[in-house]
Design a protein that fits this description.
about 325 residues; alpha/beta; Elongation Factor Tu (Ef-tu), domain 3; Rossmann fold; Ubiquitin-like (UB roll); 3 domains; 7-stranded antiparallel sheet; 5-stranded parallel sheet; 7 helices; about 20% helix
């Protein structure tokens, strides 16, 4: 996967385990100063996965200090290998990172904010909570956060969030059978409220369904996904693209989009997070099951397997595709 930004040398200067499966990395650029970032920003990190250079994107956590970048990485034993490569790094190791970039900006003009995080999806919302808490004190806006995880010890950064938000933070633990009532939460929002969310695809789909069902303006729902969600563990699968006479295997550690680009199939893309739909390709035949990991396609499209978002979605088995790119 190629980076769309210049990469700079940096060094890991500190590690901290936030939960049994989430590790925080403090990274210092070789230049000695870290570029400022805004809430919702992320960092591109170059890693070696399966012997190949790969780019992974991780949300920046907390307020900038001018010297370091802080990211938190959840170890995914059945993922594409990026998190495991990060967890093998130690203090003093060097790596290449981009300057911060932001596709999930915070708008400070709303009268009320609801933040909803699932698991490692908390990372981009930490700085939002910090900025909004200060904004609320000045503007009179209101703020509430819902944060869910499977177990109590997987609620990362909980002390910081409690210090920041107080009783406006509510947590939900799956093993205690605690669940968010999304419909009720959204129904209780005043007009003009904005909802910011990050988490696994099922959570985002449930929020989007509840939001649309309540007749809320689509522009007031802001979300970011992470690419590790899916019904199946990542595994190699076969892809055929007759238009380009391509028959390849997509490795478990590669995205479909990266594999197609490596095979010379030009494919339109932008967000690479399953949100914009630019990389969606027509499915001509499917021998197996599609693992749709995007939040762009409708439930009907996913059920019919008529298209697939190449940047995040996968297949168990084999799939025949028609490229969305038309060179002629």
């Amino acid at each position: 996967m190629k980076s769309n930004q210049t990469l700079y040398p940096a060094t890991i200067v500190a590690l901290r385990d936030l939960t049994p499966t989430v590790r925080e990395f403090e990274i210092q650029p070789a230049a000695g100063q870290a570029a400022a970032w805004q809430a919702g920003a992320h960092l591109q990190v170059e890693l070696t996965v399966g012997g190949l250079a790969q780019i992974r994107r991780y949300s920046l956590v907390g307020l900038p200090d001018g010297r370091h970048y802080r990211i938190a990485v959840k170890r995914m034993d059945d993922g594409r290998g990026g998190s495991q490569a990060m967890w093998r790094l130690a203090v003093g190791d060097t790596l290449a990172v981009s300057a911060p970039q932001n596709h999930f900006p915070l708008d400070l003009s709303a009268p009320h904010y609801l933040l909803v995080a699932g698991g490692i999806g908390i990372t981009p919302l930490v700085m939002m909570a910090q900025q909004l808490q200060a904004h609320v004190a000045r503007s009179g806006a209101s703020l509430r956060m819902l944060y869910g995880a499977r177990t109590q010890d997987e609620l990362a950064l909980l002390p910081l969030l409690r210090e920041t938000l107080g009783d406006t933070l509510q947590t939900f633990v799956g093993e205690r059978d605690e669940h968010m009532d999304l419909a009720a939460e959204i129904a209780a929002l005043p007009p003009g409220a904005q909802l910011y969310t990050c988490g696994p695809v099922p959570l985002l789909e449930a929020i989007r369904a509840a939001w649309n069902g309540a007749g809320r303006p689509p522009a007031d729902l802001r979300f970011e996904t992470f690419g590790s969600s899916g019904r199946f563990a990542a595994q190699a699968f076969r892809v055929l693209v007759p238009r380009h006479q391509v028959d390849i295997m997509v490795p478990a550690g590669s995205t479909l989009l990266d594999a197609l680009e490596s095979a010379g199939v030009e494919t339109l893309s932008d967000c690479r997070r399953g949100e914009c739909g630019l990389c969606a390709m027509d499915v001509l035949a499917l021998d197996g099951e599609a693992d749709h990991r995007d939040v762009f396609l409708s439930p009907q499209e996913k059920q019919h397997n008529s298209r697939i978002c190449a940047c995040v979605s996968r297949v168990v088995g084999a799939v025949t595709l028609d490229s969305a790119y038309r060179g002629d």
